[in-house]
Design brief:
The structure is a homodimer. The first copy, chain A, has 13 helices and 17 strands. With about 375 residues, chain A is an alpha/beta fold. In chain A, the strands form four sheets. A seven-stranded mixed sheet of chain A has the order 6-5-4-7-10-16-17. A four-stranded mixed sheet of chain A has the order 11-8-9-15, covered by helices on one side. In chain A, helix 4 packs antiparallel against helix 5.
Chain lengths: ~375, ~375
Amino acid sequence: MKNSKRKEMLQTVMWKEDSVFMIDQTKLPTRLVYVKCKKYEDVVNAIKNMVVRGAPAIGISAAFGLALAAKSSNARTRTKLMSDLCRAYEELRSTRPTAVNLFWGLDRVMGKAKTGKNLLEIKSGILSEAKKMAKEDIQTNMEMGINGAGLLYDGDTVMTHCNAGALATSAYGTALGVIRAAKDAGKLIRVIATETRPVMQGSRLTTYELHHDNIDVTLIPDTAVGHIMSRGQIKCVIVGADRILRSGHVFNKIGTYQIALMARFHKVPFYVAAPMSTFDFKSDLGDVPIEQRLEDEVLKIGKKRIAAKGVHAFNPAFDVTPPELISGIITERGVLTPPFNFRQESLVGKNEKIRTLKMKLSNPSII
Amino acid sequence: MKNSKRKEMLQTVMWKEDSVFMIDQTKLPTRLVYVKCKKYEDVVNAIKNMVVRGAPAIGISAAFGLALAAKSSNARTRTKLMSDLCRAYEELRSTRPTAVNLFWGLDRVMGKAKTGKNLLEIKSGILSEAKKMAKEDIQTNMEMGINGAGLLYDGDTVMTHCNAGALATSAYGTALGVIRAAKDAGKLIRVIATETRPVMQGSRLTTYELHHDNIDVTLIPDTAVGHIMSRGQIKCVIVGADRILRSGHVFNKIGTYQIALMARFHKVPFYVAAPMSTFDFKSDLGDVPIEQRLEDEVLKIGKKRIAAKGVHAFNPAFDVTPPELISGIITERGVLTPPFNFRQESLVGKNEKIRTLKMKLSNPSII
């Protein structure tokens, strides 16, 4: 059973034939095509152009990008190799500013590289670390799924925004991983997916991967969130995250904040599902840049201009949801409940599960 | 000055060459094309397919539709003519279920028809009544504009949703009429227009007509409303309405309710601009049908499918904003302020302006 499931699992990023293969997410849902990145510069472009997107998937792609840089380096000295790696590191790091997993993935691989004693050890160390991260990511998502599945009841209708699924990770997904785990536990879950303008990850990616896995999904325009909540049709919301601060502020796809606000007003629990690699224990709220993307994403659809000529658009890729609107953060270590005041030493490095107020959260009337 | 402005004014629906001419709004902003309706059936199709849309514009188009039905009737008796008119009336009435101006326009023209003593009098009475309504609509909008303009201050940034502009009326507009009037009064007003998925009236129509009139407009995705409000960038929201109940519940384009909710949370005044013809003094909340439109409007963009195959969508065209979220309703008779408990006799039929708590409303800190 498990094997047959794994065979079908969408794998978003992987190492094969000395290259990085990734699903070209700009082509979905029309075509499932893998692009082959032979050079780290290909990975840089893939991240910038959202061929690959989703915080964990970006982190792993960047790690593999460093492995490509190591592989193609002609350096004959350790110093030259590290300098080549640093250039690639900086370029990969500057592809997108908000999701913290990118920096986490790059730093983890560079940390490994620094421990290498010679060229061969550095090169093989980088590749094995990147592969390990990709594998760990799937394991992490499955643990997160099990931890979160207890929050969902048989027959629940769950709203999700953007795509925090297999396509945002190596495989299985964060928010959608929780839904997959609930389904695997025998619960019937229906999903309401928001379109998620302007890039439409909800329409294009979330409907694709849930339908692929036979999970009931209905698409709504972003304008219908409040209306559908007011009719009492949503039992809870689960979204992913691009960065979580120690204060509990969550940076995620534009539109997340307003969904959290509406969830609070309609007494619908609002959960965030994210691995520990999404936590940023150092930055304060004002330190985190919100990426502004090209206004053409709003003014055009495909190549066709929708808005009147001469008009400008405002296109922030992310927003911030404050901790007071969040009912719980689902991680591979357990479900974190408010009040949030995370310290790195209390969350990272221990092997035991974080104790959570799961009983409290499992009662949907308490948000 | 006034004349030169009127010359340029976008005229959405008009009677010319014994036909109804209307701007084909499905072609905007790419092309400004007028379609000619020679038969009332053409008007039926134009309303159904949203060639013409916007509550007041639909009401006037339907009135002209009855004039076309009268013109083309071969009836030789009063009874036969009235029967032909009744058939057209029923067909026009069933084009769209939510906006009340459609029924208002049809009933007003039919009321006039019934007073006609002979065929000629009925036919000419219908046409002159429809023409009168189109003319009155512009006058109404200008009065509404003057009444609402006092709520806006020089330098304000105003958010609007969907298109409640010239293109939703005969000309000048309701919500955008208020903005035009504020501009005419010498105030600099910046507009933030929401895209308004799925039909994108904000992207296609609001940006078009504001840019046409040299009013500063920036387009945002529907997902960015909460984010932009949280940054304190919006001074107030003005939207139109498709139907207003005596309780003050406002039916308007899907997405209006959630904008009102976010406005309340961020202490941003939320105004509705609508003529008295939008008021429904008879229906209760449960009586009003919310039109469900084809799911292809959400699943496809143009002819291209965006969502995965096999997936369904939920596509309600309207939602309901409760009176407690509304700071004021701007009408041609004055600005109505809460608490709302409208009675037909107190609002309709008097010539004097409704007394309003304008002073209270003019302080933006009070919402």
